[in-house]
Design goal:
69% of the residues lie in helices and 0% in strands. It is mostly helical. Helix 8 (187-200) runs antiparallel to helix 10 (225-250). The chain is globular. The N and C termini lie far apart (46 Å). It comes from Salipaludibacillus agaradhaerens. Its EC number is 7.1.1.-. Keywords: Cell membrane, Membrane, NAD, Oxidoreductase, Quinone, Translocase, Transmembrane, Transmembrane helix, Ubiquinone. This is NADH-quinone oxidoreductase subunit H. Pfam families: NADHdh.
């Protein structure tokens, strides 16, 4: 019975997640359109709401092509390996005081460890395609994800030092007891986290692994149909998961005025974090590769280490 309940919970989360990804893609198009003085999707459904559904149907009906010289087994496995970790990390997010996944003691560690597997899907997809553009895109992707995973993880260490726990619920409860969200005392860490997460997600202005002006489409150049959709699904699923982690760590999770349920506050905060990403996508030009790597190693990592040192001193001083 326990296994059946876990399976049903996973299916329910997947269905909700698919709806969330559909909404996120539509929201990104509408927000970017508004910022750039365009209407955005407006043909299918009221206010263009059926546009993403039409795109999904189109991808499902497209021919699934595997290049003749590709490594077929790895080519087929890569999209699955990109999506599965992004979906698996949803298992430890806690959406309210009564709704959530596995409330384990190492929730943050599990999230960071499992999510890092996604880069294997990127590398395998580019390498197995037997395409130079795809290979360059995958190499860029792995280098970027490894480089920016370090400051992302280091930005979280300050919160762990203060709370003394890797449990998601403990982190939210600590903010409730403190009467303040961690975005205030850990504002520098929040900035480092947000910038690192953009690079980790390969989103503009750090979308160099799929730079269409240089690499056609990057690591998924040779993918079509449903396998291409799997990469897109992995990207937006991972974005929702990282926004959920940011909400838990820095924005008090489900905490908010009592006139709305906790899960509603959680979802509103996730939407706010993703809106910031959409805003930056529509505003900033793409960075150069050398600028991207220098910024990660020479700016963000030192800032994250500085935050850890300052937080440690404050923790000791507070006793």
């Amino acid at each position: 019975m326990d296994y059946l309940l876990m399976f049903l919970y996973a299916v329910a989360v997947l269905i909700v997640l698919l709806g969330g990804v559909t909404f996120a893609i539509l929201a990104e198009r509408k927000v970017i359109g508004y910022i750039q003085l365009r209407p955005g999707p407006n043909r299918h459904g009221p206010w263009g709401t059926a546009q993403t559904i039409a795109d999904v149907v189109k991808l499902l009906l497209k021919e699934d092509i595997i290049p003749a010289k590709a490594d077929k087994k790895i080519f087929v496995l890569a999209p699955v390996l990109a999506f599965a970790p992004a979906f698996s990390v949803m298992a430890v997010l806690v959406y309210s005081s009564s709704i959530g996944g596995a409330d384990i003691n190492i929730g943050v560690l599990y999230f960071l460890g499992v999510s890092s597997i996604t880069m294997l899907g990127v590398l395998m997809g580019g390498w197995s395609s037997n395409n130079k553009y795809a290979l360059l895109g995958s190499i860029r992707g792995v280098a970027q994800m490894v480089s920016y995973e370090l400051p992302l993880i280091l930005s979280i260490v300050g919160i762990i030092i203060l709370v003394g726990s890797l449990n998601m619920t403990d982190i939210v409860n600590y903010q409730a007891d403190m009467g303040m969200w961690f975005i205030v005392p850990q504002f520098l860490a929040f900035i480092v986290y947000m910038i690192s997460s953009i690079a980790e997600l390969n989103r503009s202005p750090f979308d160099l692994p799929e730079a269409e002006s240089e690499l056609v489409a990057g690591y998924f150049t040779e993918y079509s149909g449903f396998r291409f959709a799997m990469f897109m699904l992995a990207e937006y699923t991972y974005a929702i998961a990282i926004a959920g982690l940011a909400t838990t760590l820095f924005l008090g999770g489900w905490l908010g005025p009592a006139f709305l349920p906790g899960i509603v506050w959680f979802l509103l905060k996730v939407c706010a974090v993703m809106f910031i990403w959409f805003w930056l996508t529509a505003t900033l030009p793409r960075a150069r590769v050398d600028q991207l790597m220098n910024f990660g190693w020479k700016v963000l990592i030192p800032l994250a280490l500085l935050n850890i040192v300052v937080t440690s001193i404050i923790k000791v001083w507070m006793g």
